[in-house]
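name: query_chain
kind: protein
chains: 1
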Amino acid sequence: MSGFWTTMAAVGGPVGAVLGGWYAARATRAAAVIGAEAQKRVAETAAGPEGRLADLAVLRASVERVDQENARLRERLFGLESLVRAFAGYAAQLAAQLGAHGVEPVPPPERVDEFHRTGV
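structure:
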């Protein structure tokens, strides 16, 4: 039984980290593409005031869209982080419960020890 929870803790932490990294990378790529697109449009229409106003509207819409996406990604990342913390606490309680009954739990993987030492 303890092997199952140890495996779940060992898999849950890295999965959460990978998903968080994927979401952050996705937002960064989107922001870079939008920024480059906005800069290109600003350079193309720098001569006319009407063009500048149009570019400003495009830029504002792009920034708003990126801000909304970042907010959604941060919420999802926060949820994953809290799930990993809750699961780590639960696994620690199970290990303590096993130890209280004289059963030596399987030692956690190195990544789990690192998490407990650093919190990251």
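note: The two ends are 26 Å apart (CA to CA).
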